[in-house]
Design brief:
339 residues; alpha/beta; Rossmann fold; SIR2/SIRT2 'Small Domain'; 6-stranded mixed beta sheet; 3-stranded antiparallel beta sheet; 9 helices; 20 strands; 24% strand
């Protein structure tokens, strides 16, 4: 209903302020950020901790601050305005129930603050070049699973059966009990068989993803599990390399080289072409465990046409600003369910 009302009256006003209950305000702001995209008119969501008819209410201040921000010529997109803070719609979270300072911006600075009726910007907002677009369909097939000690693995069978995507809030930086990872491995194989998991594009050269059960794995840099003679081209398995003394040698006398791409060597064109195809057709693109500083692999992100880019790495990457979700931490721990 909110999206429909915004679309019907979008050309009639310069900005919009939505008064909302605080308990679910962050959810509405996040959803609205994706349902109304590329809006060069501000859509502000606000509320109050105390009713507006009370002397101690914060409703009047929040409403006035929202109107001030919505009337600013350089305000764009969907934002929460609360307790003098302007929070990006996708970053707001209610963390305090009784305090007027109820909302925080998660892993992102405030766009601006409002003090003494003045708007002080921290991050300059840039207008969108694309036309505003309204969406109405939201999938209910995404589930968030928060791990707790003693959680029974049986719940995973239900989730994998009834949902197309599962976001796991795990322990620490990504820890997960072995009893759960065993079930995840089995269920991920089913997802691949059902076509939900299309392909894994990796720079790993150790066969990790195949060992986890993935069938369609595009190894951009090859694999140490495959080795070939530089003279006759004969292939050898890793067992031959392990049992060799010194530099492995073929029966023809040629040196045996791992089937990996070394620096200044070109990537396999078929693998590269397949990677571009899978990435360009992907609905959700998850990039993990890479600094995105080495090309041409880092350039593959340019072929992604969707709007669900997820980056997972221990340190910031040059593409963090283009991602829809950035998670900092160990890819092995965060995605341990894919082992």
């Amino acid at each position: 209903m909110l999206v429909k009302a915004l679309e019907e009256h979008y050309d009639d006003y310069d900005g919009f302020v939505i008064c909302h209950g605080t308990d679910t305000m962050a959810y509405t702001a996040a959803a609205m950020s994706y349902l109304v995209q590329h809006t060069n008119k501000p859509i502000v969501i606000t509320g109050a901790q105390k009713p507006i008819d009370l002397d101690v209410t914060d409703a009047k201040t929040n409403l006035l601050d929202s109107l001030r921000f919505a009337s600013c010529e350089r305000a764009y997109g969907v934002n929460i305005v609360f307790d003098g803070k302007v929070i990006a719609g996708t970053r707001g979270k209610k963390e305090r129930t009784k305090s007027y300072n109820a909302f925080s911006s998660i892993n992102f600075p405030y766009h601006a603050v409002i003090r003494d009726r003045r708007l002080i910007r921290y991050i300059p907002e840039m207008p969108y070049k694309e036309r505003v677009h309204f969406y109405y369909n939201m999938k209910d097939s995404v589930c968030v699973l928060k791990l707790i000690p003693g959680l029974k693995p049986d719940i995973l069978y239900y989730l994998f059966e009834n949902y197309d995507s599962i976001v796991v809030e795990s322990f620490g930086v990504g820890g997960m009990p072995k009893s759960l990872t065993d079930v995840f491995r089995a269920e991920m194989k089913k997802w691949e068989q059902e076509g939900k998991l299309k392909a894994v594009v990796t720079q790993n050269i150790d066969g990790l993803h195949q060992a986890a059960g993935s069938k369609v794995v595009l190894e951009l840099h090859g694999s140490v599990l495959r080795n070939y003679c530089e003279r006759c081209g004969r292939f050898y398995g890793v067992e031959h390399i392990v049992t060799s003394e010194g530099v492995p040698v073929c029966e023809c006398g040629g040196s045996i080289k791992p089937d990996v791409v070394l620096y200044e060597e070109g990537l396999d064109q078929k693998t590269l072409t397949d990677a571009v195809r899978y990435i360009s057709e992907a609905d959700v693109l998850i990039v993990g465990g890479t600094s995105l500083a080495v090309y041409p692999a880092a350039g593959l992100l340019d072929y992604y046409r969707g709007n669900k880019l997820v980056l997972v790495n221990k340190t910031p990457t040059p593409r963090d600003s283009a991602a829809n979700l950035v998670v900092q931490g160990s890819i092995g721990e965060i995605f341990s369910q894919l082992d």
